Amino acid sequence: MSGPDYIAVPVMTGPVGCPAALPPVSLDATSLQRLMPMHLVLSQDGRILRLGRSLRKLRPDRDLEGEDFFEVFELRRPRGARSVSELLAVEGGRLSLNLRDQAHGCFKGVVVPMFESDEVLLNLSFGFSLVDAVRSFDLTAADFAGTDLAIEMLYLVEAKSAALQESKKLNQRLQGAMIAAEEQAFTDTLTGLKNRRAMDHVLTRLGADGIPFGLLHLDLDYFKQVNDTHGHAAGDEVLQAVAKILVHETRERDIAARVGGDEFILIFQKLADVTILSDIADRIIRRLEDPIPYGDSRLRISGSIGITTSTQNPAADPESILETADLALYASKRAGRSRATVAPVRYHETRSAAYRTAEP
Amino acid sequence: MHGLVNRSIQCFVQDNYGQPVWVEIARQIEIEVSGFESMLTYEDSLSNALIEATSGLLDKPEDMLLEDVGTYLVSHPNTEAIRRLLRFGGQTFSEFLLSLDDLPDRVRLAVPDLLLPNLELLGGEDGQFELRVGGPEPRYACVLVGILRAMADDFGALAFLELENTSDKVPIIRISLLDSAFSEGRSFSLARPTANAPEPQS
Predict the structure, then answer these.
(1) Cβ of A159 and B191 within 8 Å?
(2) Cis, peptide link before residue B104, omega less than 30° from 0
(3) Which residue, B164, B152, B64, B138, is CA-closest to B100?
(4) Which of A70, A72, A78, A62 is nearest to A45 (CA)?
(5) Which one of A131, A156, A158 has the shortest CB-CB distance to B84?
(6) B160 in A contact zone (CB under 8 Å)
(7) d(CA A326, CA A306)
């Protein structure tokens, strides 16, 4: 190594709590290496006179001593600086720089003038590029000063990413559990009515137990217009109002389910009398036609209903019962909406039979 | 107790004794087979039941079980992250021992709600150390003995450890460091191995 074995390091002099007349401090090379393993001493014309042992690892294949500092490093702050005097002019001597052939790694640096000399002392650290630097330059804990928080930072980076990974796993599992719970849920979250899943479940159970029931398939009329004219919030309000009506018109043991955007199915347990079911359907349609207050406006809808019963489809599975009700509903729509239609008995064998459509 | 504690015991069982043993433990303490979440906190009574059931099923006294858990945390490939974090404590086993005072603070930096016992290392002359394990949960000392034994191997040091666990005093781990360079130990690089692959064993 060139240069003297002892170098005089400048001490801070200034008005704030530091006596201006303190004598300069001298350190031997070993102590300097221990304090600042990433230091450089530059001559006035920017030649590297000596450097810390850790910096040697940046260029293991060549000796940096004697090279032009500004050829090896590129200054980011002060940007494009090419002389020592430019470095010293920076407020607080704070520098930002990178190796010319490795633009991604950024060093932080502080430069100070040496005592009674034209040379300057520059101390570097890796800053945020530390994680990459330990990998690129194969650094060990011994390469950092004892006061450097580099090892603590590396520790934190690893510990935090391990903890974050655990948290991510937990989030993923919770999300999975939430989706599963939603799939298993029986409730329509908007209206509080049962959902299609719950309805299918009940229909299958009633069929299996041989319990007679009546089924109403309701499709709202003019709902699309409400949505288009007043927005989705109004549409939601309507659906909630409809849900209230349906709950009111059914008994505790009956099922009111929302099975589509504006489609509902009502199942009346142990009630397969089409006359009573028609009365209920008419009453529901009348109540649906009551205007629903929404802000300053009043929303108007109606409903079409298809009616069927388990006794009309004695051997039919839930799917075909629903299909029967759907066809009866379609007949109501075709007959001009706002009405209920009872599906003909044993629909499958009398596909051409007339539908009994009642005006409300 | 913190989920990491319960989860450690669960992974220890699954990795060392197989899933069927874990399924039986889960059944006995009435939890789902999926087990514990590392980032949640559980009732102490559940942790106690877990330790009791595991100890019973593996036919191992609780202190031996917990020591084995400690060894597992450092030496098993699945828990490589923990070994690495511990290795940041120092470049030699004695440096690592001296860093134990900071361990609870270090752990808190990573997982703020994981409270570890206060550790106080005394001595050091002639390789004789005394580690006092404070706090209300003396069983941590058993886990720590396992961790320290495995870390000594990891650094390639030959050390003798003894747990002094009397019910009325704080547990003390006596450590005799006989040879700090007994074997080569395992390599450790500050740079994290890529793709989570464990470092090659030396």
Answers:
(1) no
(2) no
(3) B152
(4) A70
(5) A158
(6) no
(7) 6
Specify the length of chain B in residues.
202
The structural domains of chain B, with segments of one domain joined by +, span 3-60, 90-186
Active site residue A101: no
- Buried/exposed B184-202: b ≥16 CB within 10 Å, e otherwise: ebbebebbbeeeeeeeeee
B59: exposed, middle or buried (Cβ count in 10 Å: 0-12, 13-18, 19+): exposed
Q: Which fold has domain B90-186?
A: H-NOX domain (3.90.1520)
- On whether both A153 and A136 belong to a single domain, the answer is no
Q: Which of A135, A137, A144, A175 is the best mutation test for B, with the most CBs of B within 10 A?
A: A135
ipTM: 0.78
Put simply, the answer to whether A155 touches B38 (Cβ < 8 Å) is: no
3-state SS class at A220? strand
Whichever domain contains A332, its CATH number is: 3.30.70.270
Task: List the helix and strand counts (H, then E) for chain B.
Answer: 8, 4
pLDDT at A304: 96
Instruction: Give the span between the Cα atoms of B82 and A188, in whole angstroms.
Output: 46
d(CA B130, CA B146): 16
Q: Do A162 and B110 touch (CB under 8 A)?
A: yes
Q: Higher model confidence: residue A77 or residue A8?
A: A77
CA dihedral A263, A348, A283, A229 (to 10 degrees): 30
| pLDDT, tens digit, 9 for 90 and up, residues A217-274 | 999 999 999 999 999 999 999 999 999 999 999 999 999 999 999 999 999 999 999 9
Backbone torsions φ then ψ of A304, nearest 5 degrees: -115, 140
Q: In whole angstroms, what is the distance from residue A268 CA to residue A215 CA?
A: 6
Among candidates A191, A298, A293, which has minimal Cα distance to A240? A191
Angle subtended by helix axes A223-230 and A232-248, to nearest 10: 140
Q: What is the mean pLDDT of chain B?
A: 90
Sheet of A255-258: strands edge to edge?
A255-258, A263-269, A213-221, A302-309, A340-342, A356-358
3-state secondary structure of A121: strand
- Structural domain boundaries enclosing A154: 149-184
Contact call for A158 and B111, based on CB within 8 A: no
